[in-house]
Write a structure and sequence with these properties.
single chain, 309 residues, Rossmann fold, 2 domains, eight-stranded mixed sheet, two-stranded antiparallel ribbon, binds iron/sulfur cluster
């Protein structure tokens, strides 16, 4: 069941899901300076609705691989207050506590919640073309170690023989993963695979490993599937916001918009609402990397159908 509407805080009551007990509202509260993330007022209306129906909502997110405001638990807690979320119970998950499901480390406060409201701001995404519910599950609900694992497939590899030592890749890296040595020294432990170094390299010395996309997309989809599997008893609601859809995700300080506002989509199945989200955005001629999304969604469909909920 997929519902499209503008008054989502009223419409969520129409999706047959059970949001009672401790209800985790999983959302991205925005990188410092980002004006497009889901706003406290929107969350407040949904939290009120959950309370009305007997649930106890709290907001939750995990820390990032890249080293900006959301890199540490404390940094993210401060940022959440700064972005107006101080009136809610906000839980930023520790990277040291998780539940292991099929090798995926799901952040403990999410794994232990009675129900999940997966609230996703739809944006373009550097790895998957489009970021929405599947991205929020896969990358948003796991601790750093699993984020590293998922990204590891798409990180750059370096071929010293082709390197001229021009330094463009080092300057392009926003995360301090590259340094000058005799040639380039690559430390990819916290590399979120943004690809900027690859784009900056004109000789092919910095490139993605073979079959990076296939392996990376599969790891991404398997992580999403592992998290969704924790809420298979009708206790997960997915809400995608198609407002302020931007070229890059909310980890960017800012990013241009790529589509008109279209309200929200909600449903109980994350893949279905992402496919419907993509259909609406394509119809609206949103500037998204559709070739990347098409490959990613094909692999996601295969992964989700191999391991049905
Ligand atoms: S992909 Fe390249 S530019 Fe991006 S964070 Fe990793 S090393 Fe840095
Ligand atoms: S951009 Fe390419 S050629 Fe230049 S230093 Fe980096 S790897 Fe070497």
């Amino acid at each position: 069941m997929v519902i499209l509407g503008y008054r989502i805080y009223e419409d969520i009551g129409d999706v047959p899901v059970d949001l009672t007990g401790r209800v985790a509202i999983k959302l991205h509260m925005g990188e410092l300076g980002n004006p497009n993330h889901i706003q406290p007022d929107e969350v407040g209306k949904m939290a009120d609705k959950i309370r009305e129906n007997g649930g106890e909502p709290f907001l939750v997110d995990t820390t990032t691989l890249y080293k900006k405001g959301r890199f540490t638990k404390r940094g993210y807690e401060e940022l959440a207050k700064r972005h107006g979320f101080g009136r809610f119970e906000v839980v930023i998950a520790s990277d040291d506590e998780w539940k292991d499901v099929d090798g995926i480390r799901i952040a403990k406060p999410i794994a232990e919640a009675d129900a999940l409201l997966l609230l996703s701001h739809v944006t373009g995404h550097i790895l998957t073309g489009l970021g929405a519910a599947i991205k929020n599950l896969a990358m948003g609900c796991v601790v750093k170690e699993s984020k590293r694992m998922i990204h590891s497939h798409m990180r750059p590899v370096y071929d010293e023989r082709l390197c001229t030592g021009c330094g463009s890749c080092v300057h392009a890296c926003p995360n301090g993963c590259l340094m000058f040595g005799r040639k380039v020294i690559l430390d990819t432990r916290d590399c979120p695979a943004c690809g900027r170094c690859i784009g900056a390299c004109t000789t092919g010395a910095m490139r993605r490993p073979p079959k990076a996309e296939i392996h990376g997309f599969r790891a991404f989809a398997l992580a999403a599937r592992a998290v969704a599997g924790q809420f298979r008893n009708g206790n997960m609601l997915c809400v995608n916001s198609l407002n302020k859809v931007t070229e890059r995700c909310d980890c960017s300080s800012n990013s241009p918009r790529v589509s008109k506002d279209m309200g929200y989509i909600c449903g109980s199945d994350p893949l279905s609402i992402d496919l419907e989200t993509a259909r609406l955005l394509r119809e609206a001629k949103a500037r998204i990397k559709w070739d990347t999304w098409d490959k990613f969604s094909r692999i996601s469909r295969a992964v989700f159908s191999q391991h049905p909920t």
